Amino acid sequence: MSKPNGKDRTQSNGEDLAGGPALELPLLDLPGSHPCHECGECCHYIAIEIDNPTAFVDHDHIYWYLSHRDVTVYVDWEGDWFIEFTTVCEHLSEQMTCGVYEDRPQLCSEFSWDDCEKTSGERAWKVHFRTPEEYHDWHRAKRPRSFERYQAWRKKLRASRKRVRVQSSRRVNAATKPARAGVSPTPAS
Q1: For residue range 49-62, what is the model confidence (pLDDT) as tens digits?
Q2: Residues in Cβ contact with 123 at an 8 Å cutoff, skipping those fewer than 6 apart
Q3: Of 10, 18, 36, 121, which is least packed with CB atoms within 10 Å of its CB?
Q4: pLDDT in tens, 94-121
């Protein structure tokens, strides 16, 4: 994920550091020469940092995340892990500009187009997982001992679920089994 750079893009004379006049937004349409012209790509997802998976439950959470549509997980170039949701900002205009520019969240304000993966030409991620299978393949290849322990944990989990299901099924069958002729279904007090 691109990191905000915290730089002010304008000089004291009101000119953009790139040499042109500073843009006063919101604009209905950005100039064609602006890198963000008709883009809005950064307003089509949110990414939240998550812990580097080390425990069984961490790996299982990633399996769960990736089992949902429009959710991916990635590792950025610094080794930080993120969950990404593909979703469009409610304030994105048809012209791909911000409809609440003056009142936008600080996170949006700190994001700089010169750090954007689209304008920089670099992907935001080192590794990107779109499906549970992609994650399991990576886990198996890059962290084989961890993957084997995780698979053993999953096997025990499945076995315990099966035991519970069988026991539950037996209780249901016993409760719904018709009484034999001459035998009271409930014990006499």
Answers
A1: 999 999 999 999 99
A2: 117
A3: 121
A4: 888 888 878 888 888 888 777 777 777 7
Cβ neighbors of 129 (< 8 A, separation 6 or more) are: 62, 66, 72, 73, 74, 135, 138
Give the bridge partners for 10, in sequence order. 16
Tokens of 111: 């994001």
Q: Which residues contact 97 (CB under 8 A, 6 or more apart)?
A: 25, 26, 27, 28, 29, 30, 36, 40
Report the pLDDT value the prediction gives residue 23, as an integer from 0 to 100.
Answer: 52
* Tokens 């991620």 -> residue: 125
Phi, then psi, of 37 in degrees rounded to 5: -55, 120
Structural element, H or E, at residue 135? helix 132-142
